[in-house]
Amino acid sequence: MTSSDLRDSILHHLKYSLGKDAAHAVTQDWRMALSLAVRDRITDPWFDATRTAYAGQNKRVYYLSMEFLIGRLLQDAIVNLGLLETAHEAFTDLGLPLDTVLSNEPDAALGNGGLGRLAACFIESLSSLAVPAMGYGIRYEHGLFKQSFVQGRQIEAPEDWLQQTHAWEFERPESTYHIGFGGRVVQKDGRSVWEPEDGLIAQAYDTPVIGWKGRWANTLRLWSAKPTQIFDLDRFNSGDYIAASAPETLARTISRVLYPDDTTPQGKELRLKQEFFFTAASLRDALRRFESEYDDLHLLPQKVAFQLNDTHPAIAGPELVRLLHDERGLPMDEAIATARGCLAYTNHTLLPEALERWPVELMGRLLPRHLQIIERIDAAHAAEKPDRRANALEDGEVKMGELAFIMGHKVNGVSALHTDLMKQTVFKELHRLHPDRIINQTNGVTPRRWVLGANPRLSTLITDAIGDGWVGDLEQLSGLETHLDDAGFLDRFAAAKRGNKTDLVDWVQRNQGIALDPDAMFDVQIKRIHEYKRQHLNILEAIALWQEIRDNPNADWTPRVKIFGGKAAPGYVFAKEIIHLINDVAAVLNADPVTSKYLKVVFLPNYNVTLAERLIPASDLSEQISTAGKEASGTGNMKFALNGAPTIGTLDGANVEIREHVGTDNFFLFGMTAPEVDARRELGDHAAQAIAADPRLARALDAVRDDTFAPGDPGRHAGIAENLSGHDYFVVCSDFTDYWRAQREVDAAYADQGGWMRMAALNTARSGWFSSDRSMRGYLADIWRTGPALGADGE
Ligand code: CJB
């Protein structure tokens, strides 16, 4: 496609799809027209992929996830189609910068954090690998809330990405399923039949996801809830307009908002309804597709794989059994075995509060037949493994982790450490009963979005050095190592980083009115705000450093900007206090005439995928400082390493594997290991001991406790100080001293820019293993037992 073809297509859509005259078009019109023109280019490979999968009778992978944090789609599609240059030229002709058009797209925030972003990377990788696959989720009307700060406090506003037409989706009014709730189970002709009392319609919306080089496209199918009855005409005619529209309002509630909760599901009925809603619709859709091709249900495990992204779709187990046994007549034991052959479960967290459990009463009321089936699943499991008790039903609750484990033929952790801890802790008993079931599949990230799209300067440099094969085969980055002794290469590497930092400096100046020095080290912590992720450890270190610079302003300090980004769940009070403290500390430090040339703190509001794409390429240092044993994997850590930002981190999640890959000399390790954390907690007064041993820590905590950062409002941050010097469950104080030491090593290393750039480039060269293509190959080989539908040559 030439730039004039693309320009013609854009003008065509502007006129005939959007009804706009070019003379009156605003940026949004141009963005829509470009999206439609690009979407046209995706449609043929998309249809071809579907036809190929049917013709080849390939096994299909269905990825069931409550969250798909896809972000913006336009640039990604352009990059994967190889049309970036063409699009630049087309818009040069049209007199508008392409970047202006691209940045007009809303960020589809249909996820909270790592789990949702991982799902988005996986779907892209499955398309890039040409694996017949489909993502199934919910088309939330409102994604993750918009965050702003008022006097340092987080304020939440509803997110409204669907206020504008979503350029990428195709509405499928014909793809609908009736989803029931409640009611009773009756016996008919010796069979159990669920007769739901309420119901609604799940309607499909399809977004094509194009893979690298446009060879293959899969579908992200999101379900929207519609009422069975649009409105109540009798009530309308009697003048009760509100009651008349109640059916619609109630139904729409199911797909209205994404729960703004990261690791602690709200124990709410609505959440369980959401989970059943999208899971049931997805299973029926997949079964319909299967039955259009095959008439033997025993083939199901050979032809269909359902991956449960955490426990949110774990109701898939009993629902699939119900569909096979109650509705299709397979004997119960066969139905359970067949369902297990199709299902696999990925665990993403060990935090006890995040392992979903539903009261039996609620399950019985909303899904009475499913509760009976769960009892049967437990009974069958107990019959198979009579020696021990490890059930889904216990103490009046349905434990969704156990249910997913029992109903999955494989259960995977998301990093090596997390997988080991799963075996030792939450699934200890089940692991003993099924020693082959738990496997590891370390997470990964897509290089198309996170390097090629987000970091064009670095990408050009890499391609100049080793060719462009790395985009589809990230391990080729190792070829960069031979270039590291070439001073010219390292200079260009430094220039790319410097260019990215300068862009960020300009953006922060324009958007926040804060001036930053691009020569300072950009030290970045971006992720959800959570005590286990320990943003408060980072800000405590900033306070201590500020105090030390004030004591000794003429010393040789390494200038540093600490950048934070992340949202706190609206109900998580302590996380919101951490945000408030960071903002208050930033206000004081940035206004300090003596220290601010060495140390600044910036908290960028409304962290999202787009902001991550801006920040990560401009980062020097990656903060991955969670309490060991708590972060299942992390994926931000991989994006930073790939983009040439060494990590300061604990031995937690995938940090362990990143350190092994990049080399221990190129990673700033600190802190206790997971077993050491457990042992430390046994000492009741671990925080007090740590504070007594480190006057620097004591002084920083005093500043949090008094009104240093809350002038005129002493006590504002006392809650944090009390928590840290008392219970301190996440052992912030006990890790502080070693964190300080590692940070000073970072300072010294950064002061030697030649050495630093080499370390940064080694991070890039050695991080190729962290591609989500590698993760997907692992799932394909070890869980789904299938492969690409096309060979490397496209045949
Ligand atoms: N994770 O983002 C979430 N939400 C959850 O509810 C549970 C876990 C994260 O999943 C990521 C993808 O596996 C992990 O990298 C991360 O450590 C984990 O917290």
TrEMBL record:
Q: Which GO terms describe its cellular component?
A: cytoplasm
Mind telling me which InterPro entries this protein's record contains? Glycg_phsphrylas, Glyco_trans_35, Pyridoxal_P_attach_site
**Keyword Cell division carried by entry:** no
Q: Which organism is it from?
A: Meridianimarinicoccus roseus
* Location(s), subcellular: Cytoplasm
Task: Tell me the keywords, alphabetical order.
Answer: Allosteric enzyme, Carbohydrate metabolism, Cytoplasm, Glycosyltransferase, Pyridoxal phosphate, Transferase
Would you tell me the protein name for this molecule?
Alpha-1,4 glucan phosphorylase
Q: Which family does it belong to?
A: Belongs to the glycogen phosphorylase family.
